[in-house]
Design a protein that fits this description.
The chain contains five helices and five strands, in the order ααααββββαβ. It is of the alpha+beta class. It starts with a helix and ends in a 6-residue tail after the last strand.
């Protein structure tokens, strides 16, 4: 799906949810959609400044917070970066990411078996999972 198709899909999701998809949010979304792999907030800021010279760190962080709450992006805690979720219209799923430490490629996978195993262990411990992101680091097929 192209970045424009993803943007159009995100605009429809926002309209359906009744949330404002401001210009800054759309610009950050588009930058994420055009980026290969994960990208940090300050790298996003550098790219945004080529579009909007007045952009500040707060602009990026507010946009990323909104995009994350809408399920459009996932934060990769281990490398403090963000990646676009390509199936965000139904993004209420457990997130499992394969992160290549050599080239930075990030692949989102979905294993119901892994989710079930984790939830079963959590239930046995009396723990209620509210949000799940599993990050696995290694080398992708191209870098092996």
């Amino acid at each position: 799906m192209t970045s424009q198709e993803l943007l159009s899909k995100a605009q429809k999701v926002c309209a359906k949810r009744g949330v404002r998809f401001t210009t800054a949010r759309e610009q950050v979304f588009t930058l994420l959609a055009e980026n290969e792999g994960a990208i940090g907030a300050y790298d996003l800021l550098d790219k945004l400044k080529s579009i909007d010279a007045a952009a500040k760190p707060a602009t990026i962080y507010r946009a990323l917070d909104f995009l994350s709450k809408q399920g459009f992006v996932h934060k990769i805690e281990s490398i403090n970066a963000f990646v676009l979720c390509h199936h965000f219209s139904d993004c209420n799923h457990p997130v499992q990411l394969l992160i290549c430490d050599a080239c930075g490629h990030v692949e989102e996978i979905q294993s119901n078996h892994l989710d079930l195993a984790l939830r079963t262990m959590a239930d046995a411990s009396g723990f209620a999972i509210t949000h799940q992101v599993v990050e696995a680091h290694g080398k992708c097929q191209n870098c092996q």
